[in-house]
Amino acid sequence: MIPILLAICLPYISPLMLNRRRPSFVILLLSGLLLASCGASKSSDSSFFRMRGVVVAWDDVKDSASIDWIRIMKESGLNTISVFGNEDSEDYSAFKEKCISEGIDFEYEDHAMSSLLPRELFAAHPEYFRMDENGNRVADGNGCPSSKEGLEIIMGNVAGFAKKRAPSNHKYYAWLFDGGDICHCPECKGMGTSDQGLLFENHIIRALKKIDPEAQLAHLAYHNSTEAPKIVKPEEGIFLEFAPFFRRWDRPLCDTTAVSDRTHYGWGHKDYLRMLKENLAVFPAETAQVLEYWLDVSLVSDWKKPQKELTFHKDVFEQDLKTYAELGIRNITCYGAWLDAYYVRTYGDISFVSEYGEGLRDFTGK
Known about the structure:
Layout: H1 2-9, H2 15-18, H3 23-43, E1 51-57, H4 58-61, H5 69-76, E2 80-84, H6 90-101, E3 105-107, H7 113-116, H8 148-156, H9 158-164, E4 171-172, H10 193-211, E5 216-221, E6 238-242, H11 269-280, E7 289-292, H12 297-300, H13 314-326, E8 331-334, H14 341-347, H15 351-362
Parallel strand pairs: 1-2, 1-8, 2-3, 4-5, 5-6, 6-7, 7-8
Helix pairs in contact: 5-15, 8-10, 13-15
């Protein structure tokens, strides 16, 4: 639009105007319009999905000769990567910097409760940790969100956590212990997993905001925390991350008759759609994101190597995008764990990674 306006207006700008006492005004105006035009074309991204991501392991990305994740991401329109494992190595840091220099956002999506509340504290302070259903304090999972001192310990460890795992886009992830039980002490009784998790997250985001005023923190709706919080309300900066771990990937989420034989909660797609909508009534849809498993080789391999070959159901993936878009979700990421050098040597074809990226990039919202 701006170039068109310039083309129309330029012939009508009198040379006399440029000779007036303040010619710089016109020149600056035209320069500003031209710069705005150039900036708009450079930064424009018409994709419906703003975040188009992948979550992978370090072993998946370290051998770029076998699978060049950065090249694949740039060619297919993926713009965000999270790499777990080996975060302290120089090679890892170099890969992170290369991603950022290539315009790819870098994040750290992982379970972090054991880092924020080290289990070594249990011997001296068992009250920081959860109580099991038999009344015993245990250090096998998550902390006790009713312990004020425990929460202070967690908040005190946020600075070191944030420095070590500084994202390029201000989005942080401090997930609860993976599949761990919650606290059943008298003070916590009545709060489900989602509420207890959100209580931790509300404290963590406060500490993060002191370090990074633009910080956002994920509330992971996954496994036993998939149900929406019922008591605790999210503080500003908390966003929903919905991970339908016990769904089927050979049938679209909109197929409400589908039920996976993997679930031990009895959930089917109908339940996941209900829980997603209930979560979106608590968390804003504009910041919500989905963490899917369409590309997760580790999952289809039951987390046992050597890994199995993945079957990518492109039609299901495309229908799922429509379902998520209709609910107002514009941020999508997906596990791609164990898509590594061994996988490429054994099975060869990984074109489904590009199909995934292109599907997100080219989706119009219809």
